[in-house]
Amino acid sequence: MQAGRPGLAAQLLRRKPIGQMVREAETGHGGTRLVRSFGVMQLTMISVGATLGTGILVILGESVPLAGPAIWISFAIAGLAALLSAVSYAEMAGLVPAAGSSYSYTYATMGEGMAWICGWCLVLEYAVSVAAVAVGAGQYVNEALAVFGLALPDAVSQPPGDGGLVNIPAMVIVVLAMVLLVRGAKESAWINTAIVLVKVGILAFFCAVAFTAFNGGHFEPLLPMGAAGVSAAASRVFFSYIGFDAASTAGEEARNPKRDLPRAIMLSMLIVTTIYVLVAVAAIGARPWGWFDGTEAALVKILEEVTGQPWIALVFAVGAVLAIASIVLTVLYGQTRILLSMSRDGLVPGVFGRVSHRTGTPVAGTLIVGIAVALTAGLVPLGALADATSIGTLFAFALVNVAVIYLRRTRPELRRTFRVPLFPLTPILGALMCVYLMANLGAETWVTFGVWMLVGLAAYFGYGRRHSRVAALGQEEYRELSGRDFSPTPAPAEATIFHQ
């Protein structure tokens, strides 16, 4: 043990002072701060962009056979679980306006050990979900090409295990998002906003067309696979709600984070849940649930069959590729900011925390993450990616609900710009819902999660424990930072655009 550092048990339980987080957000890493340029609209669009479309556009065909016509109930259950966690995220985002999302919240409440586990789960959530969503791009590229009688060979549009060698469209989308993020966060946010509007437009268009072929008989029987099928589908489609927390990773790039982050998180959840349920009902109404089994790019095929117009399928397929690109862009953004926070704490190598003076973005970290995710998207099948993403996310969400309860009990004097309603019932239900959905995931997913956790423990003891900056704080400095009261920064300072 290094001189002055706490023992293992004490280090695992040592919490990161909120004061230290605020100070780091103000001073940046190496003298360079992230640029505060996001208002509530951009933050909402980051959250919607990272969330909307994932399950509907990519895994609907894999989820309907689990629940049957009740798939819309599965979306509602998953949405409720996400909403219960979202209100906890909203409270924590207003209280701890720093990059890092639930990793930072857990560090402030449960200590370094749980923070590392949470951060490691977030690496799984963000990196793997980007890859999973990008995998679906190949399906829609082929749907667009089919209008012209063309198709990409499986060898370059499917990963090994699904009949191909490498998924080139998935890799291309990730690389393009990586390049855009390297250029600057503000530019990426405006492009994302434009794409989100296109995404909402094409899903509204699908509903309008699908409802013209609506057949109420497709909902009978409602529960052919029973309640267990609905629960299993809810666990899988929870993947569709991953991303609403992306806005919370922008805590150091929001102009007024304590006010705007809670608003953006709650508004995005309302938008996404409403659209998901509408699209699910429209899709089942247009086609019987058995039709979805094994169907790729299901929404495009429904439009094609209902209208008989290939150009409509072409427009939707192009819009779907853009929608997938929006998810990849925003979730990849969140991944780089979480690693930036972990690097700032010394738990991962410093390269992930270097912010460019020219662009105000973590260029090196973005390149490393982008290349790793592109390779994953090109080589790993979708089903395994989706389930692995869900279990990591559910674990992180459960920790945020616990963090809200802990800080309400231990630091009631801290000023909160948003408070969870019906406390403590709401965060307790949120944590229990997450545990329930985790329990419904398959044994293979749990094995994958266990292996990932073992790799994470090896990484922590091999690197993170020895380089932790919180563990290196002297007792006097640690007590001083832990005891400070951090009221919201005055509005004029929050609105300042930091130098690049």
From TrEMBL:
| Places the protein is found | Membrane
Regarding the membrane, this protein is recorded as: Multi-pass membrane protein
For this protein, the record's InterPro entries field holds:
AA/rel_permease1
A Pfam family annotated for this UniProt entry: AA_permease_2
Q: Which residues form a coiled coil?
A: none
- Keywords for this protein: Membrane, Transmembrane, Transmembrane helix
Q: Identify this protein by name.
A: Putative amino acid transporter
Q: Which organism is it from?
A: Arthrobacter globiformis (strain ATCC 8010 / DSM 20124 / JCM 1332 / NBRC 12137 / NCIMB 8907 / NRRL B-2979 / 168)
